[in-house]
Amino acid sequence: SGARDAHLPLPEGSPFGTVHIDASACTLCRACTAVCPSGALSSSGPMPRLLFRESSCHQCGYCEALDRIEAQVVLHEAVPFRCIECGAPFASPAMVTRMERKLAGHWMYAGARQLRRLRMCRTCRTRDALISKDAALWEL
């Protein structure tokens, strides 16, 4: 390019390395954290939240040259949905609502007890399914 300096100055507050989240559409399923090759997107702890570390972002490679430690920025979070049996946090409220909507009418969730299981953590959901009469329907 003929440039003498390989760095381009960016104005203060530039949207360099940012991620924009549509909070009304994001269910905090955390799938994006699983596919981020650099780990710039992450999630930690029981709180359903999405974190972003700009210095880990592979958007252009510029951030590899930075010698600074950046704090993670919370992009989106929600109060965790708690299991209706044991109280353990296991998902975001939006994710539980989406599961209920998508599985309404499915033969495995035809009754009130089956639908209720969607509001349970995996341990309580499994326990409830195995002690119910539903297990006979599945030919276990």
Task: Give a description of the structure.
This protein has helices at 31-35, 93-103, 112-116, 122-131, 134-137; strands at residues 41-42, 49-52, 73-77, 81-82, 89-91. With 140 residues, it is α+β, with helices and mostly antiparallel strands. Strands 1-2-3 form a three-stranded antiparallel beta sheet. A two-stranded antiparallel ribbon has the order 4-5. Strand 1 (41-42) and strand 2 form a beta hairpin. Mean pLDDT is 79; it is low at 60-68.
Short descriptors:
single chain, 140 residues, alpha+beta, three-stranded antiparallel sheet, two-stranded antiparallel ribbon, 5 helices, elongated
Question: TL;DR of this structure?
Answer:
By secondary structure, the chain is an alpha+beta fold. It has helices at 31-35, 93-103, 112-116, 122-131, 134-137, and strands spanning 41-42, 49-52, 73-77, 81-82, 89-91.
Order of helices and strands: HEEEEEHHHH
Number of strands: 5
Largest sheet: 3 strands, antiparallel
**Radius of gyration of CA atoms, rounded to a whole number:** 22 Å
What is the distance, rounded to the nearest whole angstrom, between the alpha carbons of the first and last residues? 68 Å
Strand fraction equals 5-15%
| Average pLDDT over all residues | 79
Structural class: alpha+beta
Q: How are the strands of the largest sheet arranged? A: 1-2-3
Number of helices: 5
What coarse outline follows from CA principal-axis ratios? elongated
Q: Helical proportion?
A: 25-40%
Low-pLDDT ranges: 60-68
